[in-house]
Amino acid sequence: MYEQINTNISRYVPFDSEELRIFNSLMEYKQVPKKTMLLQAGEMCNFEAFVIKGCVRKYYIDANGSEVILQFAIENAWVSDISFSIYEHKPSQVYIETLEDCSFFIFTPETKEALFAQAPRFERAFRILMQRSLAVTQERLFNTIAKSATEKYVEFLEQYPTLSQRVAQHYIASYLGISAEFLSKVRHKIAKT
Amino acid sequence: MYEQINTNISRYVPFDSEELRIFNSLMEYKQVPKKTMLLQAGEMCNFEAFVIKGCVRKYYIDANGSEVILQFAIENAWVSDISFSIYEHKPSQVYIETLEDCSFFIFTPETKEALFAQAPRFERAFRILMQRSLAVTQERLFNTIAKSATEKYVEFLEQYPTLSQRVAQHYIASYLGISAEFLSKVRHKIAKT
DNA sequence: TAAAAACATTGAACTAGGACAAGAAAAATA
DNA sequence: TATTTTTCTTGTCCTAGTTCAATGTTTTTA
User: Fold this and answer.
1) Does a structural domain hold residue A92?
2) Do B56 and B113 reside in the same domain of the chain?
3) Percentage of chain A surpassing pLDDT 70?
4) Domain span at residue A35?
5) Within a domain: residue A171?
6) Could you report the per-residue pLDDT of A76-87, keeping only the tens digit for each?
7) Are residues B25 and B85 in the same domain?
8) pLDDT of B131 higher than 60
9) What is each CA distance from A135 to A186, A189, B70, in whole angstroms?
10) Residues B96 and B181 in one domain
C-alpha cells in the first residue's frame, strides 16, 4: 500500500523505517471519482496529493475563458497548487480536476508541518522534489517558446507515451498551447508520413 | 555587506545570529565584469549565485541557434542551473551570462551541503525559495501560452519596471518569446495610444 | 439501446507574429 | 572624435496557427 509513495519520496533522500513510519502515519488516503474538482480558483489550496492511481489535470482559465493546462499528474506524481496558495495564504488561481477515478495520499499544511517537525529530513526530500518540478517547468517553457506544434506533440508522445491514450486530445492541445483543431491537423500530417 | 542576503534568506524562515554567521562564513564573494559567461551549455553548473549588484541572463539556445531567455536575475535574486545540473550530475543545457558588472555571493554544492549539515533549517528556506521560483515559472508559462505579445510586454513593464532601462530590447523580446522586430512594432503601437 | 453529450476531423477564411532586408540611432571603443 | 559595433525601427512578404462552422465519431447516460 505504502510502497509506491515510499519509493518516490526516498528517491533522492534515503529514509529509515522509523522515518517512513512517521511519514505514512501522517498522510490520508482518499478515493475520488472522475471529473471531481479538487480545487477551484478563488479557494485556498490546502492539500498536496500524491497520485496512487488515476489522472488529474491542473489548469488556468485565461481572460477569454479558455483553459490552459499546466500539468497532468498520473501515478507517482504530486499535484497541488503549492506555489503561492499554501505559503502565501493567497487564494489559488488554478483549477485541479480528476480526469479518471483516482486514489491519493494527501498531506495538508498541518500534517506536512507535523512531518517536518517529527522528521526534519523530509524538508530535504521535498526541496529536491520541488527542484525537479522547477526543472521540468523550465524545460516546458523553453519548448513552448522555441518549438513548433509538431515538435511539441511528437516530444509529448515520447515523454508521456501512455497519456495520449488516457486523456482527450483537446486536453493535450491545451497542454501544448495549441488549438484542438490544429492538433488534429498535426496528427493527420504525422499519420501520413 | 551581508544584510541584503540575510534579509532575503530570512524572508520565510527566521534565522538566529549564529545560523546567519554560519551562512555568511560559507559563502564566497565574487565580482565579475559585464559580458562574462558564468555557465556554458555542456558544463556542469557548480554554483548558486545571489546577485548583490548587477544583472544576469540565463538562456537556452534552440535548434535554429536562436536564444530563449528563461530568467533575468537582478539585485536580490538567485541564479543557477539548479534544475538538473547539480543534483543529477548532468551537464547543463543553459547559458548564464552577466549583462552588467556584477557582484555575487556564491554557494557551491559543497558549501551548500556544509551549510545544511551545520544549520539544517536552511533546507527549509531553500525549499521555500524553490517553491516560489516554481510559482513564478508556472505563471510565466501560462502568460506565454495565453497572452498576446502586447499584453506580455505591458505586464513585463509593470512587473520589472527598471529592467527595460537596463537591458537591450531584443533580450526582453527573447524573454517574452517574440521577435525583436515584433516587439519594436508593439512598442510603436503602444506609444501612439 | 436510444438519445444526448462530448470529442475529433476537415475545410475555408483570417491574423498574429515571423523572417528578411535596409537604414537610422545609439553606444562602445580606439 | 571618428569609427566600428550593437541596437532599434520600419516596410514587405510570408506562414504557422487560430477561429468558425459543419459533419462525423465515440462515449456517456438514461
Assistant:
1) yes
2) yes
3) 96
4) 3-120
5) no
6) 999 999 765 556
7) yes
8) yes
9) 27, 31, 11
10) no
Question: What one-character DSSP code corresponds to residue A86?
Answer: I
User: Which of B123, B139, B155 is a domain's end point?
Assistant: B139
User: Do B66 and B105 share a structural domain?
Assistant: yes
Domains in chain B, number: 2
**Closest residue, by C-alpha, to the C1' of C26:** B168
What pLDDT shows up at residue B136? 92
pLDDT at B19: 98
Contacts A137 to B, Cβ<8 Å: 134, 137-138, 141
H/E run at residue A163: helix A163-166
Tell me how far apart the alpha carbons of residues A138 and B63 are, in angstroms, rounded to a whole number: 17
Tell me which amino acid residue A45 is.
Answer: C
Q: What is the mean pLDDT of residues B136-157?
A: 97
CA/C1' separation A73–D6 (Å): 46
Residue among B191, B190, B150, B158 nearest B176 (CA): B150
Through-space separation of residue A150 CA and nucleotide D24 C1' in angstroms:
24
Domain of A8: which CATH number?
2.60.120.10
Q: pLDDT per residue over B77-110, tens digit each?
A: 999 997 655 566 677 889 999 999 999 999 999 9
Reading the block at residue B38, the C-alpha cell is 558564468
- What is the mean predicted confidence (pLDDT) over A125-140? 94
- pLDDT of B169 above 80: yes
Instruction: Return all residues near A153 (Cβ < 8 A) that are at least 6 apart.
Output: A172, A176, A183, A186, A187, A190
The confidence score (pLDDT) of residue B184 equals: 98
B187 touches strand D (CB under 7 A): yes
